[in-house]
Design goal:
The chain is an alpha/beta fold. It contains seven helices and nine strands; from the N terminus they run ββββαβαβαβααβαβα. It has a three-stranded antiparallel β-sheet. A three-stranded antiparallel β-sheet has the order 4-3-6. The longest helix has 12 residues, at 128-139. The termini are far apart.
């Protein structure tokens, strides 16, 4: 169910939220199953959870469910458009939390928690809306913000332009927490490259 504009999952057991432990985990989300005449696909899209585990537990503390946040882009059409148009109180289908979060594909130990334990510097690169939705959970996670007081934590966010950027209101909060947050606008980069590539008009030969 949508609680405000957040997803309130009502699981079969009270332990559903306990499987959400680290940023980078994801869930499958879709509108309720309907027949094909309504044009809704019978499959789930996977969305990275866009809030931190701490935020989810805080928001879920006094209700009979588990609150998480995901980000959809209605411009993609299909189920994403349907989800974006839903009002508070609408019902959606949500899978169990899956994945190991931000972790190496080649080493099961190496990941975000181990980087914090080993006091490593952290660099996050977020590309587009889906990228910043995933990285937002990292930047809002209390252990990462505490880490930023003693080690370098940086994030580069690649997006088209300031008007297309997401979570602008939180950028200064991340910076105040000690995180080096840098947006990179591809639109201005392309304009700059085009200007650099313009040839000077040739003069008439003498």
């Amino acid at each position: 169910m949508l609680y405000g504009r957040k997803i309130q999952a009502v699981p079969d057991t009270a332990r559903w939220i306990e499987s959400f432990t680290v940023p980078g985990q994801f869930v499958g989300v879709r509108p309720p199953k309907q027949d094909e005449a309504n044009g809704l696909a019978d499959h789930q899209h996977l969305y990275t959870i866009a809030c931190s585990p701490y935020e989810s537990r805080r928001d879920s503390a006094y209700i009979g469910g588990s609150i998480i946040e995901v980000v959809v882009d209605k411009r993609n059409g299909g189920d994403q458009s349907s989800l974006a148009d839903m009002a508070p109180g609408a019902t959606v289908e949500v899978s169990q939390v899956v994945g190991r979060g931000f972790a190496s594909l080649f080493n099961s130990y190496s990941g975000l928690p181990s980087s914090l334990e080993e006091q490593r510097n952290i660099l996050a690169i977020a590309v587009g809306l889906r990228g910043i939705a995933a990285v937002r959970a990292v930047l809002n996670w209390a252990p990462v913000q505490a880490h930023a007081t003693s080690r370098r934590v940086s994030c580069y966010y690649v997006t088209k332009s300031p008007s297309s950027a997401a979570f602008l209101a939180e950028w200064d909060q991340w910076r105040e927490a000690g995180i080096n947050f840098h947006p990179l606008y591809t639109e201005s980069m392309l304009k700059g490259s085009a200007q650099d590539g313009e040839a000077e008009p040739a003069g008439n030969p003498s």
